[in-house]
Design goal:
779 residues, alpha+beta, Ubiquitin-like (UB roll), 16-stranded antiparallel β-sheet, 3-stranded mixed β-sheet, 18% helix, globular
Length: 779
């Protein structure tokens, strides 16, 4: 019992001893911290700094004289100093009441060098990285810069680019940073395949999207680079393409991207479900608006029963009906198309028009315009902040912005505003290059080659203005042109601009004198509707005749060597083409008339009309039909028409004939030759079928055409001088005709065309030409 008690007391003693020991330890630690906290900092000593001032360092130290230096405050100071990126190492300690801050500064970047870059310029790479010359060297920043350089190359399709950085130490704590780049080959697109398509071939669908397969001329563009955003836009383009051709149920099932490591090429497989092709059934209008008669609205509907379903026509009908309702005082009217699929693959469409909710536009946000001024986008809207919301006007604005040609993608959406009756409109744009340098080859007036180099900018200084400068040089011909267009003159939907020109033509086989024209034009245009435009112009032309040969017509030798033409005119344009660059359907009509005699030396009225009608004959095989007609007339006012004011024609009017090879001409004598004298009237009609040649990849951009053409240049209203006589019958209306085939190449240098023509009917004095090459720039 005593032994047990002894053991119990002994255990209790040891437990108490341990508790006292631990408590004493805590007391010592607590006393130490309390002692440290009790030591207020009286002085902060900074050492190790060379470039960075003491005051700058102290701004990041959270401990000031009079404050206590705790473990927490010291840690905060260390983090703040390291976060500046100015220091390679930092330590903080206390010595009595002195706080010691010791730093080791990061070096200064003396220079940055890029080695191995050929595809990207040095200034582009320098702008992409964060490290700058004369800045502070930061190792973490260098790693990020390597990643940025890789991203810049990958955006150009070079996915396998390799970038290494090296740091070369210099004296005075400086370094040079060197980025060594292995650009690697571009990862192109080997194939774009479509799965599930029956109505349209793969080639037709490839032409409907922006992404292109890698070809021989792919180095001139970037369309053969895989881009996720572009592919998403391509899917939307496919939907619009099918919806516009009657396939209302079309959907993109998937887009699969594979890369072949061996060939370093992408394979894109797009799976689609076309669905059935529909035509319009019954077309109705259902409105609850008072004082709005359906019979007044029906002519505004573009969809017609029996026609192939076309989503564009539905959109245009919604726009027209919405604007008509707004014009009658229903600003909030809303038009909703209701489609009902019925037997016979028909869609009945009913345009339901109601009052709509009283919703206002709170704000219009614009994103993505890094270069384009915001007002260039805003002015395409017919609504502004505070106006009544109208979805049709948003659709119209989106189409207008897209048609500017300065954005790769345009998307207009709406979101909820700050109140139930407020809507925020969001415009997302992706800018694209708007400058072009184009090279064209054509035929000059002497039958030789004319090369044309033109530089254009469709978004000059980000203001949406159009500027073009061109120089053409040929055998005996030189041309110089400068044009400027402001599409929104005085803030209104009115275009205004000017043209300056110079033409120098030397004597050739069909002209025995030199002639130069120098002048300019002022023009203004305004749209009356979305399809119909009117323009007005004033033109000044100073003409000089020189180097007149003895074989020249007496009418030229005795004429005034210098003539000034001052004229005013107007132009009417009606355009329903689906594309101005590669039309497949629609009508384009242009009529212009000029009145000379507003000052100057000559008086006449010149009239011309040109009409082109395109129709897609087979969408799957990309076969397009073209009918074109042209005509012109010039009449002198109180005087004869000068020879040089006449119309001159040849292969540009009816293929198969030489330049200036048609129409009235001088009867050859012992001195004078058979110079072309031109005519006061012309006309021509053309029927043409355009289609892609078999076995030629679509990416090459080549099409073929077969054509039949007929026309004439006739009439002569000039009193000839001296011994000049008109070739008998040359001024009569005599039909010339030809058939032939052509090759059209939409080359990176501009559209080029070569035509082979066989003449069916001509006159004995006409001059033929079997092959003709023409073309020009992209503009």
């Amino acid at each position: 019992m005593n032994v047990a008690r002894f053991r119990l007391f002994t255990g209790i003693f040891y437990v108490l001893l341990m508790v006292l020991t631990v408590s004493a330890g805590f007391a010592v630690i607590d006393g130490s911290v309390s002692h440290a906290q009790a030591q207020a900092v009286s002085n902060v000593a900074v050492s190790g700094n060379e470039r960075i001032s003491r005051d700058t360092i102290l701004t990041y130290v959270t401990i000031s004289p009079g404050q206590r230096a705790t473990a927490i405050s010291i840690d905060e100071s260390l983090k703040a100093l390291f976060a500046t990126g100015l220091f390679k190492d930092v330590s903080i300690s206390t010595s009595g009441s002195t706080l010691n801050v010791r730093v080791v500064e990061n070096p200064v970047v003396n220079g940055i060098a890029f080695i191995g870059n050929k595809k990207l310029k040095e200034e582009d790479l320098a702008g992409a990285i964060s490290t700058k010359a004369r800045g502070v060297f930061n190792p973490d920043q260098i790693d990020a810069d390597v990643a940025r350089i890789k991203q810049a190359y990958q955006a150009t399709g070079r996915l396998n680019v390799a970038v290494k950085s090296t740091v070369e130490p210099l004296d005075k704590n400086r370094v040079n940073v060197v980025f060594r780049i292995d650009e690697a080959k571009k990862t192109g697109i080997a194939q774009i395949n479509f799965i599930g398509n029956n109505a349209f071939s793969d080639g037709r669908l490839r032409n409907a999207i922006a992404t292109r397969e890698t070809g021989l001329l792919s180095f001139l563009s970037s369309s053969d680079i895989y881009d996720e955003a572009r592919l998403a836009a391509d899917e939307e383009q496919l939907r619009r393409f099918y919806f516009n051709h009657g396939y209302a149920d079309f959907e993109v099932i998937s887009s699969a991207i594979d890369i072949d490591a061996k060939s370093n090429k992408f394979f894109i497989n797009i799976t689609v479900n076309e669905g059935e092709r529909y035509r319009y059934g019954k077309i109705d209008i259902d409105t609850v608006l008072l004082d709005v008669d359906q019979s007044d609205l029906r002519p505004l509907v573009k969809t017609k029963e029996g026609d192939v379903y076309d989503a564009r026509e539905v959109e245009r009908s919604i726009e027209a009906l919405s604007l008509a309702a707004a014009a009658k005082g229903f600003a909030f009217a809303e038009v909703r198309p209701r489609g009902e699929q019925v037997e016979g693959r028909r869609i009945n469409v009913t345009y339901a028009i109601d009052q709509g909710s009283r919703v206002f536009v709170e704000r219009i946000n614009i994103f993505g315009n890094t270069r384009t001024r915001e007002y260039v986008i805003r002015r395409e809207f017919d609504i502004a902040e505070g106006d009544a919301f109208n979805q049709a006007l948003l659709t119209r604005a989106e189409r207008r912005i897209r048609n500017l040609g300065i954005f790769a993608n345009v998307k207009v959406t709406r979101s909820r505003g700050s109140a139930p009756d407020r809507v925020v409109v969001n415009v997302q744009v992706d800018e694209q290059p708007t400058g072009d340098v184009a090279f064209g080859v054509g035929a000059d007036l002497g039958g030789g080659f004319l090369t044309n180099i033109a530089v254009t900018e469709r978004n000059f200084l980000g203001r949406g203005q159009f500027v073009r400068a061109a120089v053409g040089v040929g055998s005996g011909n030189q041309t110089y042109d400068l044009s400027f267009t402001e599409p929104y003159f005085l803030g209104r939907r009115i275009s205004a601009g000017f043209d300056l020109f110079r033409r120098d033509s030397d004597s050739q086989d069909r002209r025995s004198f030199d002639v130069s024209n120098t002048g300019g034009a002022l023009r203004i245009g305004l749209p009356l509707t979305e399809k119909f435009q009117v323009g007005f112009n004033y033109t000044y032309d100073f003409e000089r005749i020189s180097e007149i040969e003895t074989r020249a017509p007496a009418s030229i030798r005795l004429a005034e060597p210098e003539t000034t033409t001052s004229s005013v005119g107007y132009t009417l344009v009606y355009n329903t083409l689906d594309s101005n660059q590669d039309p497949k359907s629609g009508l384009h009509v242009r009529f212009n008339q000029d009145f000379a005699g507003v000052g100057g030396d000559v008086n006449f009225v010149r009239s011309e009309i040109r009409a082109s009608y395109y129709r897609e004959l087979n969408a799957n095989r990309e076969i397009t039909g073209l009918l074109r007609g042209r005509a012109g007339n010039i009449i002198g006012i109180g005087e004869d028409v000068r020879i040089l004011d006449n119309f001159f024609a040849g292969g540009d009017l009816v293929r198969g004939f030489d330049n200036r090879g048609l129409g009235p001409r001088l009867s050859p004598t012992g001195v004078a030759n058979d110079d072309s004298l031109g005519g006061t009237n012309f006309f021509a009609v053309t029927a043409e079928v355009i289609f892609p040649p078999p076995l030629v990849p679509r990416s090459v951009g080549i099409k073929t055409a077969i054509f039949a053409e007929a026309g004439s240049l006739f009439g002569f209203d000039t009193q000839l001088a001296g011994t000049d006589t008109l070739e008998p019958g040359s001024d009569n209306l005599q039909i010339r005709s030809s058939v032939g085939a052509g090759i059209i190449w939409n080359s990176p240098f501009g559209p080029l065309r070569g035509d082979f023509a066989y003449v069916l009917s001509d006159q004995s004095f006409d001059e033929r030409q079997f092959f003709r090459i023409g073309g020009g720039t992209r503009f």
